[in-house]
Amino acid sequence: MKAFTTLTGVAAPLPMANVDTDKIIAARFLKTIKRSGLGKNLFADMRYKADGSENPDFVLNQEPYRQAEILIAYENFGCGSSREHAPWALLDFGIRCVIAPDFADIFHGNSFKNGILPIKLPREICEKLMEDAKMGSNARISIDLERQVVVRPNGEEIPFEVDPFRRHCLLNGLDDIGQTLQHAPSIDDYEAKRRAAAPWLFA
Amino acid sequence: MAEKPRTLFDKIWDAHVVETLEDGTSLLYIDRHLIHEVTSPQAFEGLRAAGRKLRRPDATIGVVDHNVPTSADRLTAVNEPESALQIATLEKNVVEFGVPYIPLDDVRQGIVHVIGPEQGLSLPGMTLVCGDSHTSTHGALGALAFGIGTSEVEHVMATQTLLQKPAKNMRVTVNGTLPAGCTAKDIVLAIIGKIGTAGGTGHVIEFAGEAIRALDMAGRMTVCNMSIEAGARAGMVAPDQTTFDYVQGRPFAPKGEAWDRAVAWWSSLPSDAGAVFDKEVTLDAATIVPQVTWGTSPEDVLPITATVPDPASATDETRRAQMQRMVDYMGLVPGQKLTDVKVDVVFIGSCTNSRIEDVRAAAAVAQGRRVAPGVRAMVVPGSGLVKQQAEQEGLDKILLDAGFEWREAGCSMCLGMNPDKLTPGQRCASTSNRNFEGRQGPGGRTHLLSPAMAAAAAVTGHLADVRELV
């Protein structure tokens, strides 16, 4: 996983609540056995017309948002399915950070595991960032994960909370499995006890 | 000192903590892992790349469901190449990693969330995960069951654990008796309408109360299935005699002395008196009217007796814009009676409503009636065994005589990733779980409702109040 330390870039405004995972990446694009290449189908039903041409009204089809690395949205971002194809598609497009008032749980967890930082900020602050984002390339937003601040184009710093373990993993680009396997003896012990207490769960 | 009263969730959580790390993250042991073709290929690839083994093949089982056609000729017909590749990849992976597998030509094949309980793979008190958000279904047995992403699928394969922080406890109590014509689906849609699609975020919901206790296991599964639609991490119902009667004798259920030990433990799991919930919601079942969604989020649900809402009535601009987008997408007119909304397609199936009880409910409405002209109505059983049972009961005949299609088991038209999908603009009365834009196919319009209500829509040609037909 690519480490996430600081990021300065264009933020795309997506002023919608309940952006669900079917919107982010529709099920018909999940027929892949790879993690890469999903970016072209990110938000496909909003981004393309029925004939496959780009919908010029959709934000990611406009300059400078084709280069967006940050997405600003409203409540309950990523609701719906557990598909990790949603963060894969965002990442493949180039999005490394999503800022919203809140996130659906599974999407929130999946993002961290792919080097995407989801930042929860109150609605009124998201509204300000939405206005910043609408200014396009004149208004780059910075994220500093070490210091846990979002820096607005006017220099104002907005602190944010993040789970310390997730922050540690992101800053260092650490995958979970390697870390968990350091606890293999504990898993062995637990498994032995579990086998004795609930033998019907073991073949 | 007496022990602190604990919830059902707390007890199962505590019994599965391998180790708690410094910052409060726990390594949670996973008893059962269900895998399917769509969210597992990248996880197997990750194991292979790192040279890791799958820790407990005996706790894992694979099945194909999302991508498979549901037509009668599906074993010989040519599938879409990408779907065929995903299925072939799973079949190769289960052999390489030694995972038990239920192939497409096995009568037990079906939707992963239908076959888990059916086979006794899902049991009270266990932790169960699957790379699918509707894994919450299995909570109906009194298990802690939740959906995970593919990175976590790989994590469970490699370590049989997940890194988790405990969820908060929420209890939804449904008191009273459900009126005739209303079902578990109406209960859960009414709950989502009340608390919203983020109402359960960060929480595990325990469903309790007289109306939940009165549900059979299929009904409890329908309710728990849609807890993710309320944003909850999982949904659960405390195990009771209904649960034990359902589980006993199933192929993977404990037997003999192990059964007695298991029941003794399971009986200790219901929440203690005085256990504290972070959030409590109460509903009176007697006030529930058959529900149907009008918008493109499951929270946008109304009694069938209602009219399409007017975006102008919204209290803020974001909501007004959202409602306008939904009304436009759905092709509805504010003020229109829901019972005047004509349908093109009726889909009875999905992990929410494809069990034998659901097929019976649809057949009871269909009996002696005909699918309205111009409507395509399909019934897709959740597993080969549900199909077999329905055919033994003659339900297939009732449905076929009424003009319904009777298909093979699979996810079918729930999610638009197999040949069963809507075409742009088509309107569907669907027993599935999500009415998102494009969910059942690009441009498709979905109204969520119960199997009985779906059958009522099929025979009348429009959204209809099933209470007028029974």
Automatic annotation (TrEMBL), chain A:
GO terms for biological process, alphabetical: L-leucine biosynthetic process
* The keyword Amino-acid biosynthesis is annotated on this UniProt entry: yes
Please provide the record's keywords in A-Z order: Amino-acid biosynthesis, Branched-chain amino acid biosynthesis, Leucine biosynthesis, Lyase
| UniProt domain Aconitase A/isopropylmalate dehydratase small subunit swivel: residue ranges | 1-123
User: Which InterPro entries does the entry mention?
Assistant: 3-IsopropMal_deHydase_ssu, Aconitase/3IPM_dehydase_swvl, AconitaseA/IPMdHydase_ssu_swvl, IPMI_Swivel, LeuD
Which GO MF term does the entry hold, naming one? 3-isopropylmalate dehydratase activity
Reactions catalysed according to its record: (2R,3S)-3-isopropylmalate = (2S)-2-isopropylmalate
Pathway(s) this gene product operates in, as recorded in its UniProt entry: Amino-acid biosynthesis; L-leucine biosynthesis; L-leucine from 3-methyl-2-oxobutanoate: step 2/4
* Domain of life per record: Bacteria
Q: EC number(s) per UniProt?
A: 4.2.1.33
**What GO cellular component entries does it have?**
3-isopropylmalate dehydratase complex
| Subunit field text | Heterodimer of LeuC and LeuD.
Name the NCBIfam families on file: leuD, PRK01641.1
What HAMAP family does the annotation carry? Answer: LeuD_type1
Q: What does this protein do?
A: Catalyzes the isomerization between 2-isopropylmalate and 3-isopropylmalate, via the formation of 2-isopropylmaleate.
* Similarity comment: family membership: Belongs to the LeuD family. LeuD type 1 subfamily.
Annotated protein name in UniProt: 3-isopropylmalate dehydratase small subunit
Which species is listed as the source? Answer: Rhodovarius crocodyli
From TrEMBL, chain B:
Cofactor binding: number and manner: Binds 1 [4Fe-4S] cluster per subunit.
Q: What is the lineage of its organism?
A: Bacteria, Pseudomonadati, Pseudomonadota, Alphaproteobacteria, Acetobacterales
What pathway is it annotated to? Amino-acid biosynthesis; L-leucine biosynthesis; L-leucine from 3-methyl-2-oxobutanoate: step 2/4
Q: Which reaction does it catalyse?
A: (2R,3S)-3-isopropylmalate = (2S)-2-isopropylmalate
Q: Name one GO biological process term.
A: L-leucine biosynthetic process
Say yes or no: keyword Protein transport present. Answer: no
Gene3D superfamilies attached to this UniProt entry: Aconitase, domain 3
Highest taxon of source: Bacteria
What UniProt keywords apply to this chain's record, in alphabetical order? 4Fe-4S, Amino-acid biosynthesis, Branched-chain amino acid biosynthesis, Iron, Iron-sulfur, Leucine biosynthesis, Lyase, Metal-binding
Which gene does this sequence derive from?
Answer: leuC
Q: How does it assemble?
A: Heterodimer of LeuC and LeuD.
A molecular function GO annotation: 3-isopropylmalate dehydratase activity
For this entry, the protein name equals 3-isopropylmalate dehydratase large subunit
Spell out the SUPFAM superfamilies in the cross-references.
Answer: Aconitase iron-sulfur domain (SSF53732)
Which CDD domains does this entry report, sorted A to Z?
Answer: IPMI
This chain's source organism reads Rhodovarius crocodyli
Q: Which cofactor is recorded for it?
A: [4Fe-4S] cluster
> Its Enzyme Commission number?
4.2.1.33
Q: Does the keyword Lipid biosynthesis apply?
A: no
What InterPro entries does the record point to? 3-IsopropMal_deHydase_lsu (IPR004430), Acnase/IPM_dHydase_lsu_aba_1/3 (IPR015931), Acoase/IPM_deHydtase_lsu_aba (IPR001030), Aconitase_4Fe-4S_BS (IPR018136), Aconitase_4Fe-4S_dom (IPR036008), IPM_dehydratase_rel_enz (IPR050067), IPMI_cat (IPR033941)
Question: Could you say which residues bind [4Fe-4S] cluster here?
Answer: 351, 411, 414
Q: Where is the Aconitase/3-isopropylmalate dehydratase large subunit alpha/beta/alpha domain?
A: 10-461
Function text? Catalyzes the isomerization between 2-isopropylmalate and 3-isopropylmalate, via the formation of 2-isopropylmaleate.
What family name appears in the similarity comment?
Belongs to the aconitase/IPM isomerase family. LeuC type 1 subfamily.
